[in-house]
From TrEMBL:
This is Transcription termination factor MTERF15, mitochondrial. Residues 16-44 are annotated as: Disordered. It comes from Asparagus officinalis. GO terms for cellular component: mitochondrion. One of its GO terms (molecular function) is RNA binding.
Length: 460
């Protein structure tokens, strides 16, 4: 009997048409040996479905029974044409195999959407056998889910994965690091993989142990895709040229490998030069350098990148840090609060920091917020006849701001935080102390008087 196939329009109408289904609340599968409880199905007896490809309808019914979202079903069937040759039992066998790995309902849907090949017979089992045969200590459901998702996105075969993992294990990588690299850098497991060994040699040649290399690669596996001659090599040469010790570099790499390895050649030199050329009070500079020049340079790098996220170019960000070195000591969350208050509440732009960088050095709660509240109150009652500029918030002393904006309006004293009293100048010494240091007076003798007279007469 000839098989007639409906058009895609009929398929869409069939899947989207209302079907008499008694909804069942979702519940966990209690047994994987038998079929699950009945789920919504597409009736083959419908006149609109009778001429449709029975394999695709069977696959769709099987997926619906196992909780596949109905909204995604039409596109999923359309994209994966291999389902037109799969029987219902094949699809159910693949789904049961995935569920036997311990996958949940949500993870099962995610795996199928990211890796439709999991519905091909033997594909999931082949991956599981490859992982177990390679010697991984445990194959958890989350591991299977992540591996299948990556293999579906980048078309990585089990033998390619094993080949790349074998090469990484020879470099001293742990199982966790290999999986981490597979998730972040799947290009290392393709048929033409990235040469991971050359990147590791750069770290080893600098003096970093293999165990430390494994930790660095686990934290920041993306650096394994960086060029050796154009990036990693010049970067470590720069570290040597700046005189950073091995212990300093190790400490920063193990603490924040992403920050240090993501630097471009010349960037560390610029940060180090800023630290060297700072002109500030000695206690501030000593505190900046308390953890070493390399840590201070990385702190500069963090704050420069943070300011650039708000729209400043790197040259202007370096200028702000040079003019206000206290920013290097402050936490990023404190700087973020100040910049957000500047933009969202005060209505100024981040470019105002170039002219008034000291805004980032003063206290937000004790200095800026009280002044802003006073100005907002005066605006609401019409007490200001001019626009308040940003310098009034930053550069006016507390006493001058009080005399100009608070003193004429007594109700603003509570908003500002109290009355500002002029400091009394107290004498350094107790009264009457000067009398103790008054030189002793001796009476003039007759001989002294005669000598003075002779001296005066000689001048005439």
């Amino acid at each position: 009997m000839a098989i007639r196939v409906l058009s895609r329009r009929h398929l869409h109408r069939a899947l989207s048409s209302p079907i008499q289904i008694t909804p069942n609340p979702p519940r966990e599968f209690q047994s994987l040996s038998g079929p699950p409880d009945p789920q919504p199905q597409i009736p083959l007896q419908s006149p609109e479905i009778a001429q449709f490809n029975r394999h695709q309808i069977a696959a769709a019914n099987a997926l619906l029974r196992y909780g596949f979202p109905r909204s995604e079903l039409l596109g999923f069937i359309r994209k994966n044409r291999f389902l037109s040759d799969s029987t219902r039992s094949d699809v159910e066998s693949c789904v049961r195999a995935l569920l036997s790995f311990g996958l949940t309902q949500n993870s099962l849907t995610s795996v199928l959407l990211n890796c439709p090949r999991a519905l091909q017979l033997g594909f999931a089992e082949e991956w599981r056998s490859a992982l177990l045969g390679f010697g991984f200590s445990a194959v958890s459901p989350s591991l299977i889910s992540r591996v299948l998702a990556q293999s579906g996105k980048f078309r990585i075969e089990p033998e390619d994965f094993c080949k790349g993992a074998r090469a990484m294990r020879s470099l001293g990588f742990s199982d966790g690091t290999i999986i981490r690299v597979f998730e972040e850098l799947p290009a290392a497991f393709t048929r033409e993989p990235v040469e991971v060994g050359r990147r590791v040699e750069v770290l080893v040649d600098f003096g970093i142990e293999k165990e430390e290399v494994d930790r660095i690669c686990f934290e920041f596996p993306t650096f394994l895709a960086f060029g050796v001659d154009g990036r990693l090599g010049p970067l470590f040469q720069e570290f040597r040229g700046l005189g950073f010790s091995l212990n300093e570099v190790k400490s920063v790499l193990l603490g924040n490998a992403r920050l240090l390895l993501s630097m471009e050649a010349g960037e560390m030199s610029r940060c180090s030069e800023l630290i060297r050329s700072l002109k500030c009070r000695a206690p501030i500079k000593e505190k900046i350098l308390s953890k070493g020049r390399l840590r201070a340079s990385t702190d500069v790098k963090l704050r420069v990148d943070f300011l650039c996220k708000y729209g400043l170019i790197k040259r202007d960000a370096f200028k702000v840090l040079y003019l206000e070195p206290r920013c290097i000591l402050y936490e990023l969350r404190d700087i973020e609060k100040k910049i957000n208050f500047l933009i969202q509440n005060m209505g100024f732009t981040v470019e105002h920091l170039l002219e008034f960088p000291e805004y980032l050095g003063v206290s937000l709660d004790k200095h800026t917020v009280p002044r802003f509240n006073v100005i907002e109150h005066l605006k609401s009652i019409g007490g200001l006849g001019f626009d308040v500029q940003f310098k009034h918030f930053v550069r006016l002393s507390r006493l001058k701001f009080y005399n100009l904006y608070v003193k004429p309006y007594p109700e603003c004293e509570k908003i500002f935080g109290g009355v500002v009293r002029e400091k009394e100048v107290r004498p350094r010494h107790p009264p009457g102390l000067w009398k103790m240091f008054k030189p002793k007076k001796f009476p003039d003798s007759r001989e002294d008087v005669r000598n003075m007279k002779l001296f005066v007469e000689s001048l005439v």
